[in-house]
Predict the 3D structure of the following.
Amino acid sequence: MLRLKTTLIRIFAVSLIISLPITGCGSKNNGQTGQQQSAQNGQNNEEVPKQLTDIEESIESIITALKGPSVPKDDEGSKNTANPNEEDKEKNSPTDESGNKNNQEGDKKSGEGSDQGGESKDSESPSPAQNTPSPKEGDTGNKPQSSPGKSPQQDPWTKITPLVNRLHYQWNELRPDASSKGASRELTDNFSNSLNNLTNTIITKNKEGTLMASNKLYSYIPDILYLYKSKTSPELKRVKYYTRDAVLNSLTPNWSVAEADITSLKSSLSTFKNTTDKKLNEDVSKLDYSISELEKVIKDKNQPLIDIKGRVVLTNINALEKASEK
């Protein structure tokens, strides 16, 4: 009888000990996605601050300046396509605005002997902005007009340096607000460290390293976005990060990481699909198919096609972001 009581006591004690870790594990798992859960529960109702939007645009601008895997928004693309025509108009405008100049050029062709008259008229026609080159050098007069059209060939680092400097000020404005909304110390520290790493890499003018560091900084955008009420799903931003990371690692090449990025990308896409509006099904389908195409060329290790397929995916993401904001 005594042995039976002792056995029962031991069984009770063991069952009590076993039950304690189970409840502990449950509370730990709930804390792993605290920021996402608070967003889903509607605790974060404030609109996305301008500083966060500006940070994202600055990162995209750095990647675009280095001709990395980034696709401009529709409005930016239309501006880029319009610029060459505007430059052509500017080149032709001096001759159109001054009818005398057209006659002067005709006179030069028909009577080259009248050099003195042609030179005196040319010196009177240019505007103040055109007086920078010597009016006597007719051939060199066209070079200042064509140089703006060649701006993409200029050193990209002259554009990138002020962009990364601006990022530090933008983050300085955003960090206190993000912390007050529940951003963890780990998240804000990781963003700060990543920004410092990007800055140091830019100083060395390492193109590949700068593209990777820029995208790494972008990887924290979705987590910060979860703190606010956003029309665009943070998971769609995460899909953009993994897409770009897969392309960059394929071009390195680092195929194992690129394939892992595709796996993570598909996981984020699945999360996005579960919360997206049915009105976006057609756009989601386009994105889904383009990701499958990208996955295929990565498995084939076809680097030229990876860059193209990656940009198609990014274009579809931009289209979904625009549709989500309507």
Remarks:
- The chain has a mean pLDDT of 76.
